[in-house]
Amino acid sequence: MPHTAAPTVSWSVEPDRRPGTPLVVALHGRGADEASFAQLAPYLPQEATMAFVRAPLAEGGGYAWFANRGIGRPLPDSLAATAGWLFDWLDTEAAGHTSVSLLGFSGGMAMAGGLLLARPERFAAAVLLSGTLPWDAGLPEEQGRLTGMPVFWGRDTADQVIPADLVTRTGTWLHEDSGARLEERRYPGQGHAIALPELTDASAFLRRAWESEG
């Protein structure tokens, strides 16, 4: 079913400070919420507007972006419904910003990947953390789909949460088929989490991407 209510968003800056800034749409992990994810704001580019969006489906004391058939395996109709909902919201929010980038963690990485695969032309860059792209969800995944797109992929190779076959498939496609300008970083000992070194690297990556756009 389509989502009808507007997204709940925790913003990093007040409305009068948003025009003329890069917009970063930040998508939390499964079972979390926008408030907990917004705690990352001080460690992300201060010149940007961060929009920490709450996923639409209540789950586990928090929220999820889509129904799935196992970890990292979205149901196509559910993923498509949330993607449409987010694109409708972006149609109203993106105006006045210099660009729109994505930042997704875990289930939020799968959602960010769904948005990228659906409409790559809408985004300037993507930060994908500790997750998988949404395979077998009816999205375009042809060779060169993300040609020229700056993509940051950060993870701990010992992360046991995301199925290894999905991580391998994601890495192969990003490196060999996507056409993206990929920056992959690995963080031993981090586990299924986000730590300061990764945020520092991701912030530097976003600034480089915005500078190249300018």
Automatic annotation (TrEMBL):
Pfam families: Abhydrolase_2
Keywords in alphabetical order: Hydrolase
Domain Phospholipase/carboxylesterase/thioesterase: 12-207
Keyword Aminoacyl-tRNA synthetase listed: no
Entry annotated with the keyword Hydrolase: yes
Similarity annotation: Belongs to the AB hydrolase superfamily. AB hydrolase 2 family.
Protein name: Phospholipase
Organism listed in the record: Streptomyces cathayae
